[in-house]
Design goal:
- The protein is built from four helices and twelve strands.
- With 234 residues, the chain is mainly β.
- It has one domain: hypothetical protein yedk fold, CATH 3.90.1680.
- The strands form two sheets. Strands 3, 4, 5, 6, 9, 10 and 11 form a seven-stranded mixed beta sheet that branches.
- A hairpin with a 2-residue loop joins strand 3 and strand 4.
- 34% of the residues are buried.
- The protein binds four DNA strands through strand 5 and strand 7.
Length: 234
DNA sequence: CCAGACGTTGTT
DNA sequence: GTCTGG
DNA sequence: CCAGACGTTGTT
DNA sequence: GTCTGG
């Protein structure tokens, strides 16, 4: 769950909601069809301030031999964050918020070769804020190279709305939980885990979109536009 | 003890 | 680095 | 997540 | 079928 998403709102736009510090250095390109291993923006706590920066989507633990590890860690199950070697350190000290316009999900059709992509977004114009973890990694084979900062999106059981599409969904945090999730000094695992339970009141809408979204070369606002849910027979 | 994996999704 | 399997 | 490749020898 | 690239 959650392997394709949209980040088109400018940092300036997001800053009003997420209160990170200005970073005039950062260049931003709106994207409408982001896949795992791409660079995505996320917010983390840096000392007293929040910081927005780019992260490689797919968490690379410090001990990983190569970055290819990240192809299997673009999601992290909330139920086992505290146990899994790949995530437990980041869960304790390196949590982040991942603001998105929305995300895509493929609903399984009647036959196994028949998947329909849907776009999910907030019913309001607000961004959805995913719970994420981040990590930094140095390539032992290339110590000269700059370290890579990577991240993952935490998933949970689908709520009743998402259930009709999928049995999992990304954790979408309520605004009042953002501060606690970001705080690296907060280490009460039980309290953090409570934030990751599926919430019913998410105000998410869904509509089917063009199958063109399947190909990551297609990256335009058209990807998010509704199409008729059933192809006409005549 | 050392060696080798370390992950998710979905599907069977 | 840390856990699991042998 | 989906789309697309998936191999060798030898020569440039 | 399974891995890699986007």
């Amino acid at each position: 769950m959650c392997g394709r998403m949209v980040q088109s709102k400018s940092p300036k736009n997001l800053q009003a909601i997420l209160n990170f510090k200005d970073n005039p250095e950062m260049s931003f390109t709106p994207r409408y069809n982001i896949a795992p291993t791409a660079e995505i923006i996320a917010v983390r706590q840096k000392e007293e301030e929040r910081e927005l920066s780019y992260f490689h989507w797919g968490l690379i633990p410090m001990w990983a031999r190569d970055r290819n590890f990240s192809t299997q860690t673009f999601n992290a199950r909330s139920e086992t964050l505290a146990e899994k070697a790949s995530f437990k350190e980041a869960f304790k000290r390196r949590r982040c918020l991942i603001p998105v316009d929305g995300f895509y999900e493929w609903q399984q059709g009647p036959s196994s070769k028949n998947k329909v992509p849907f776009y999910f977004q907030k019913e309001s114009e607000e961004p959805i804020v995913f719970a994420g973890l981040w990590e930094f990694w140095r390539d032992a084979n290339n110590p000269e190279a700059p370290p890579i900062e990577s991240c993952t999106i935490v998933t949970t059981a689908a709520n009743s709305f998402m259930q009709s599409f999928h049995h999992r969904m990304p954790v979408m945090l309520a605004k009042e939980d953002w501060q606690l999730w970001l705080d690296p000094n907060f280490e009460d695992i039980a309290t953090l885990e409570r934030l990751l339970k599926p919430r019913e009141s998410l105000s998410i809408s869904a509509h089917p979109v063009s199958s063109a979204v399947g190909n990551t070369r297609n990256d335009s606002p058209d990807m998010t536009k509704p199409i008729a849910s059933q192809p006409s027979l005549f």
